[in-house]
Amino acid sequence: MDFTIYDSSEKIIRVGSTSKKSIDVQALAGENILKGTCVDAKTHKIVNGEAVLLTKNELNKKIFNDREHHIPKIDMGGSNDGINAQINNFFAGHLPDLETWKKENYAKLREQAYPDFLEYIDAQVKIHSGNTALILEGQRQESAYFQACMDVKTRFPKAGKND
């Protein structure tokens, strides 16, 4: 038998299925059980002890809130407008202020945008190789790596801070 467990504020806690014999022991102290129904908390809510679908607005808000603490995988090779469009698409257009969000999440954006640190390590190996041609190549590679890092810092600045 399917069941949905919810608390006194009618928040869905868990769902599952068990035998009819075991159904009454599924709810713990302070919990309520809706028997015969196994609903998804992503699409439903409990109202007056009954499972109902979220409205479109509630669903969009829930999607936004779930995503608010995450960051989409972004193609950082694109233009700033392209990056902004990717972020807006991820939040389904519900992001109140894109620039504020970007400043609050600059570290996550930088993490995706920074060049691969293995490029820096490779440059160091070349610089310390003892081979003149490799040393020069390593120095150019290191310089390009540092410039790429500075470009990322410029593209995604900290809010009100120098770095």
Helix/strand layout:
Layout (H helix, E strand, L loop, with lengths): L1 E5 L5 E6 L14 E4 L8 E4 L2 E4 L2 H13 L11 H11 L7 H7 L1 H8 L3 H11 L4 H24 L8
Antiparallel strand pairs: 1-2, 1-3, 4-5
Share of residues in helices: 40-55%
Largest sheet: 3 strands, antiparallel
Structural class: alpha+beta
Number of strands: 5
What is the averaged pLDDT score? 87
Portion in strands:
5-15%
Count of discrete domains = 3
Distance between the termini: 58 Å
What gyration radius follows from the Cα positions, in whole Å? Answer: 26 Å
Encode the helix/strand succession as letters: EEEEEHHHHHH
Shape designation? elongated
How many separate helices? 6
Low-confidence stretches: none
- The main sheet orders its strands as 2-1-3
Q: How would you characterize the overall build of this protein?
A:
The chain has 163 residues and is α+β, with helices and mostly antiparallel strands. It folds into three domains: 2-54, no CATH class; 58-111, no CATH class; 117-155. 45% of the residues lie in helices and 14% in strands. It is built from six helices and five strands. Helix 5 packs antiparallel against helix 6 (132-155). The protein is elongated, with a radius of gyration of 26 Å. The model has no long low-confidence stretch (mean pLDDT 87).
Give a quick rundown of the structure:
The chain has helices at 56-68, 80-90, 98-104, 106-113, 117-127, 132-155; strands at residues 2-6, 12-17, 32-35, 44-47, 50-53.
